[in-house]
Amino acid sequence: MLFDTHAHLNVNQFAEDGAEVIKRANEQGISKIAVVGFDHETIEKALALAEKYSCIYPIIGWHPTEAGRYSDQVEEKLIQLIQSKHIVAMGEMGLDYHWMEDPKEVQIDVFRRQIRVAKQLDIPIVIHNRDSTEDVYQVLKEEHVEDIGGIMHSFNLSPDWQERFLDLGMHISFSGVLTFKNAIDVKESAKVVPLDKMLIETDSPYLAPHPNRGKRNEPAYVKLVAEEIARLRGMTVEEVAKVTMKNANKLFRLI
């Protein structure tokens, strides 16, 4: 059984066939899927999916590309939902210097605020990092993320950076990027990540793994990520599945 620890089944790309997508995942042995809500609309949809499907676990937070829309009211709503619903992590939060929808200082402020909320509520966090590694690392270090831990989502960096984030108590989650032929750094990271810190995800509908690259991604394809880890590490897919399921269940406090 596999755990897709990061999917967006709550976006428009799945509006027409979400039920079939979940069924396909279950048939492929994906027994648990974390669905991430990152703004008002997707948070509500993540919660609705979790109500409907026992295999869905919601994660809620505020995406860095939405940082300019963060407010005291948004924060109060996140706190209320995390306290009243079965939310397994807070996120995805972080920094995005690729799209730069808001200035760096705005993104960093919203990032810090969410980490502090998560620490207050004692819940792990999920980190979005795009072209912002130095600042993401610095914020996590300064905010003592080791108190709650969390996930470096869709990790695509070198073993050196991996080691630095591991030293902060973070888990490393590999997505379809790992299967890309030119993803040398992340392949090297996957070879050496401690087994008890390793997770897998799809980031559906984005980053579909080879040989589906360029198509809509879906949770059923997380098996391809597990197969690539197994190939790189000389493990069986069953061993990868067992380890990553155990890690996710422990981090999300499902066991």
From TrEMBL:
InterPro entries assigned to the protein according to its UniProt record, in alphabetical order: DNase_TatD-rel_CS, Metal_Hydrolase, TatD-like, TatD/YcfH-like
Statement: the UniProt record of this protein carries the keyword Hydrolase: yes
UniProt organism field: Amphibacillus xylanus (strain ATCC 51415 / DSM 6626 / JCM 7361 / LMG 17667 / NBRC 15112 / Ep01)
Domain of life (superkingdom): Bacteria
Gene Ontology CC terms, in alphabetical order: cytosol
Protein name: Putative deoxyribonuclease
Binding site for a divalent metal cation 1: 6, 8, 92, 203
Entry keywords, A to Z: Hydrolase, Metal-binding
Sites where the protein binds a divalent metal cation 2: 128, 153
PANTHER family listed in its UniProt record: D-AMINOACYL-TRNA DEACYLASE
Entry GO MF terms: DNA nuclease activity; hydrolase activity, acting on ester bonds; metal ion binding
